[in-house]
Amino acid sequence: LHDSGSGSDSNIMNAVEQCVNNGAKVISMSIGCDGSVCYSEATNSFFEEVYDEGVLVIAAAGNSAKDYWGYPAGYPTVMSVGSVTESGSLSSFSTRNEQVEITGPGSSVNSTVPGNAYAFKSGTSM
């Protein structure tokens, strides 16, 4: 991704390919694009190939608070991760659809921030 946080499917695929070529068996991505305009058959096929090689790719489901699909988490061979609160209920912001396979803590998580500090943050990437 660029410094602005944006990037292309080809850049993402190149990064995943580098991970696979270096022996990764699990790849976790905190990236996403919401909506059907983000779907790409070429990217879907790429993730199918990676999955067939025995690599687990995990991606944040998204923070849309809606039920539509984001990508890459929405691809069938990518494990989609949603967010739950401390009490275990789905976070209000977490994307919610049948592709979300697992959830983890994502509401008010104490996280590192720039400046060698900590702050409470929320999101499916936490």
Q: What features would you describe in this structure?
A:
The protein contains 2 helices and 8 strands, in the order H-E-E-H-E-E-E-E-E-E. It has helices spanning 9-21, 41-52; strands at residues 26-29, 33-34, 56-60, 70-71, 78-84, 100-105, 109-113, 117-121. A hairpin with a 3-residue loop joins strand 7 and strand 8. The protein is globular, with a radius of gyration of 15 Å.
Q: Helix fraction?
A: 10-25%
Low-confidence stretches: none
**What is the chain-wise order of helices and strands?**
HEEHEEEEEE
Q: Ends: how far apart?
A: 18 Å
**How many strands, which pairing sense, and closed or not: the largest β-sheet?**
4 strands, parallel
Strand line-up across the major sheet: 1-3-5-6
What is the CA-based Rg, rounded? 15 Å
How many individual β-strands? 8
Strand content: 25-35%
Contiguous helical run count: 2
Query: What number is the mean pLDDT?
Result: 93
Structural class by SSE content: alpha/beta
Global geometry: globular
